[in-house]
Amino acid sequence: MSLEDYRKTLNVTKFQNEPNTDFSRKENRDDMKQALKDVEELFGQDYPLNIDGKAQDGRAHIVARCPFNKELKLGAIAAASPDQAEQAIAACLRASTQWKKVPIDHRAEYLDLIAAEMRSRRFELIAWMVYETGKPWIEADAEVSEAIDFCRYYALAMRDLDAELRCDYPGEENALFYRPRGVAVVISPWNFPLAILTGMVTAALVTGNTVVMKPAEESSIIAFKLMEMARDAGLPTGVLNYLPGIGEEIGPTLVGSPDVDIIAFTGSREVGLEINRQAANPESQHHGVKKVIAEMGGKNAIIIDDDADLDDAVQGVVSSAFGFAGQKCSACSRVIVLQNVYDTFLERLTGAIESLKVGPATDPGADFGPVISQEAYERIQDFIEIGHEECAAIVNVDLSEDLPDGNFIGPHLFEVQEEHSRILDAEIFGPVLAIQKAKDLDQALQIANESDYALTGGIYSRSPKNLERARNEFLVGNLYLNRGITGAIVQRHPFGGFRMSGIGTKAGGPDYLQQFMLPVSVTENTMRRGFAPPADEE
């Protein structure tokens, strides 16, 4: 069988991405508005932990408030204690014995059921993301599609890993297969509260691991909805445990436990490196070195070549830099423009940024909404002050006084005139963009690659030669040519970076599930002499 014929036999060839909602249709807009009203009726509820299939209260609670209207109390989430973290790990350990024996196709069916419920609850899930994280309709809708895609793609990909790989020789049989690692801790971020969480959780589950799910404090209600859908799918007790809480309080227990085998983390560089450090230094009671899957952010650049289509480039830069208020690890925070087109591009970019509308995420006409929290607001404002000190402020939008009491920050564009500025190093995670001039493509690539991070990057150019140079010389995990650098889609754009952006794994790609398993090779000598008699014949 040829390689091409083999590929045609794979289950993943059946995969099709979930379509997004067409909000140009009135019926879809009406359904979305109704969902927002329905979710608003649920504000103020309590959300308990779920350990070993049982609801538990916490000693303390996390009060969830809407980032674009801080007067809105969305709910109170139980905050787990270190003792409850140990209980969740123990529940995983007990459930692991039976879960890893469940046939792969049956484990995959659970993911299919979760995807089906997500599809039926699409507008409800969008509404919760709108209120809990301030994510605009269109982006929240795309996130539901991505979460469904993760479920379905990993279900199909795991079925392809079910068969043993054979490599037999005369007198010897050889097989390679995969077994689950054991207990997985999933620590997820708030900026993709459903999609990234679903991707890490379902990858761990379908590969036969049991899971402690620790969502970000800012988006624990949406994670509770995922727990509901897993329960509705009939997932066995203890296989998935919902453990919201304060990271500083329960993180050390989750990461340091000798019974945890794998940690899947998406979040800040500082926390990711600390997790990696602890996992690489097992203590005496640990029975092995933990596997860490860490995605830790980016400081991403787009290069504008001197023959680029500037209208397309402006659109791509603006959407990449300011979508969801720049709160994406893939967001563009640096644009590097060749000097021949710098002035023209800057003029067009300035006009496009100044036209952006900032408002509540419930407003479908807003281009982006608030940043996630008061803490984030203050941190971003500190960087804006640095920008004013070290750079030339090109765009500094004053926001309307009519906005509600939320964490709103207008779009900012700073021109970096010196060789260096602090806003070029840190991942700001807000609506702040820096623009730099380069004399040629050599210098542009050099500037782009100077970052500690290597997640996403892009170039706008009409030159096949320069596009090829970018393929070979632009050091990022996801490179985009003549398009924006955000919005990775499952299977089409396997996502993940290296350097300080992560350790090279690719979510939504063909080798991601293998990170959650152990490869085992078995060799049997078939030249044995005779067979052992049955026990009753001895």
What is the overall number of helices?
Answer: 15
Shape: globular
Ends distance: 46 Å
Structural class: alpha/beta
Overall pLDDT confidence: 95
User: What's the gyration radius in Å?
Assistant: 25 Å
Largest sheet: 7 strands, mixed
Helix content: 25-40%
Oligomer: single chain
Percent of sequence in beta strands: 15-25%
Major sheet strand order: 15-16-17-14-13-19-20
Outline the low-pLDDT stretches. none
Count of strand segments: 22
What does this protein structure show overall?
37% of the residues lie in helices and 21% in strands. The chain is of the alpha/beta class and 538 residues long. Strands 15-16-17-14-13-19-20 form a seven-stranded mixed β-sheet, with helices on both faces. The chain has a five-stranded parallel β-sheet with strand order 10-9-8-11-12, sandwiched between helices. Strands 1-5-4 form a three-stranded mixed β-sheet, with helices on one face. Strand 4 (60-66) and strand 5 (69-79) form a beta hairpin.
What's the short version?
The protein has 538 residues and is an alpha/beta fold.
Based on the model shown, name its key terms.
538 residues, 15 helices, five-stranded parallel sheet, single chain, alpha/beta, 37% helix, seven-stranded mixed sheet, globular
